[in-house]
Write a structure and sequence with these properties.
Distance between the termini: 74 Å
Number of domains: 2
Number of strands: 10
Radius of gyration: 22 Å
């Protein structure tokens, strides 16, 4: 066991060298989190994200996803950018708000690349010791993996009332990634207590009251869900609360007191592309489909699709102060738009006209 203790220490050192801010190790027992997930699904909180349930027990029983898994290495990488003025953008009626995690390069690629390098170093070390049979698979929000439950068990933080992992020294502005392996490494201890206390800042600030109770997020009310995962019509009550948020929502992180300890990222890949931190709604709305595909290449924003992009910005333009240029821009997309997008264009035009006569 001594050699595995030494390896565990090396893995954490190598993880930092590969760009992670923290690395922890846990076993595969996720019973508590399995019960929470089951309850969440039964309540319908997953909306139409069927992928959350279609893999059966693979999400909560890691050895079913990657046979032979007995340990999970969990790492986190900060992504908070220093110069983005979140509150200023949200107060603006003409600027587009894009969640910070989506402004730069697709984090899946960045995190998986670092995990592969870390896995290779482990493999080389074990090979040099004369051992064989090492197996590993890396993940970063890319398979049925219970990332937050794993990170909590590995000591990277606790799951807060906003359902995100919070760390007492780093807040919550970070990505997670995992290595499933068959090495019997010593495991880390979870944080002894949940440190949210009586704070309800995240619950109180949520524009759509999607955090229906502490540790319970109803996706059907969540702006992030609707602007990213929803492929159809966004309910009118949600549209009115979206403001200028066109891809995701950071409100529950921005207001969290623990994020005063968050660290700014040094990753150039996470810097905003295409001026996503300062872009106007109208400039983004004018993109053609080919421009959208070109400018979102290597970006998670492409997940929403061009129709979703137009739909989301249409809503934001409808929520903006009246401007005849907005009305003209909305009408200019009407004939080429899908029926789903048209519904939102018409709603936005109507909302603008109502403001013009108010």
């Amino acid at each position: 066991m001594e050699k595995y203790s030494e390896l565990a220490g090396l893995i954490k050192t190598w993880g930092i060298q590969e760009g992670f801010q923290q690395v922890g190790i846990t076993n595969t027992s996720l019973e508590k989190h399995e019960k929470h997930l089951s309850s969440w699904l039964q309540n319908g909180y997953a909306a139409d994200m069927n992928y959350m349930s279609k893999h059966g027990k693979k999400r909560t029983q890691p050895e079913m996803l990657w046979p032979g898994t007995i340990r999970i290495i969990s790492g986190r990488i900060d992504y908070l950018n220093k110069d983005i003025q979140v509150n200023k953008i949200l107060r603006s009626k003409s600027k587009a708000y894009i969640a910070q995690y989506a402004m730069g390069r697709d984090y899946h690629k960045v995190v998986r690349s670092r995990l592969k390098k870390l896995s290779q170093r482990i493999n080389e070390y074990i090979g040099a010791q004369g051992n064989q049979g090492f197996t590993a698979r890396v993940f970063s929000d890319s398979a049925p993996v219970l990332e937050k439950g794993i990170a909590e068990k590995a000591g990277l933080g606790w799951i807060g009332k906003n359902t995100l992992i919070l760390n007492k020294n780093a807040g919550s502005w970070f990505f997670l990634g995992e290595i499933y392996t068959n090495i019997p490494l010593p495991v880390d201890k979870p944080m002894p207590i949940n440190r949210c206390g009586s704070c309800t800042a995240c619950i109180d600030v949520c524009p759509t009251k999607a955090i229906v109770a502490p540790y319970q997020l109803d996706s059907r009310k969540c702006i992030s869900y609707h602007t990213i995962e929803n492929r159809g019509v966004i309910p009118i009550p949600i549209r009115e609360k979206m403001g200028n948020r066109i891809f995701g929502c950071d409100d529950c992180q921005t207001v969290c007191p623990w994020n005063r300890y968050a660290h700014f990222t040094k990753e150039l890949d996470f810097r905003p592309r295409n001026h996503f931190d300062t872009a106007s709604l109208l400039s983004l709305f004018k993109w053609t489909k080919s421009e959208f595909l070109k400018k979102t290449e290597g970006s998670v924003i492409r997940r929403t699709g061009y129709d979703g992009w137009l739909r989301n910005i249409s809503i934001a333009l409808g929520n903006a102060d009246y401007d005849q240029l907005i009305v003209e821009a909305l009408k200019s997309k009407y004939h080429e738009a899908s029926d789903m997008v048209r519904e939102h264009l018409c709603w936005a035009v109507k909302r603008q006209i109502e403001k013009s006569s108010a």
